[in-house]
Specification:
5-stranded parallel beta sheet, 5 strands, alpha/beta, Hypothetical Protein Ychn, Chain: A, about 50% helix
């Protein structure tokens, strides 16, 4: 085997090794850079619209495992999620979102103003103790994209 063949074989092997590790690194980076989105809901008349947007988002990316979604609710919209008053469609969607890992955060200030606790809300909610807007800012500082439909 001459020098040129040996050199060509070595360069080819190195190129193949770098290509394989580059592809693996790109795949790992894509998995760790899963899109993170926070939806902001305060308008009572937009509850069904926003829940529909979240479902469309999950469906559009190919499933809940491909996106991290948080929903922060405050103001008048929170009344739609009171356990005793929620309509069956909202209850079903909240249950499915909770199962899919969607963070459902209720503003602590709104909860106080409406005189409700987490046990009064549909199952799956967490309290944004410092307030809904504070939770929104925290999530944005963690790289979440902000959507307010």
């Amino acid at each position: 085997m001459n020098r040129r063949s040996i050199l060509w074989s070595a360069v080819s092997a190195l190129g193949a090794a770098l290509g394989t590790s580059g592809a693996r690194a790109a795949t790992e980076a894509a998995a760790s850079n899963k899109l993170k989105v926070v939806y902001h809901l305060s308008d009572a008349e937009k509850v069904n619209f926003v829940l529909g947007n979240i479902q469309n988002h999950i469906d559009g990316v190919g499933g809940a495992e491909r996106v991290t979604i948080a929903l922060v609710i405050h103001g008048p919209a929170l009344k739609a999620f009171h356990g005793g008053q929620a309509n069956p469609d909202i209850s079903k969607r909240v249950s499915e979102f909770s199962r899919d890992g969607v963070e459902l955060a209720a503003c602590g200030n709104t909860m106080k103003a409406q005189n409700v606790t987490l046990t009064d809300l549909l199952p799956g909610f967490v309290s944004a103790e410092k307030g809904g807007v504070v939770r929104l800012a925290e999530l944005q500082s963690q790289g979440y994209l902000y959507l307010r439909p």
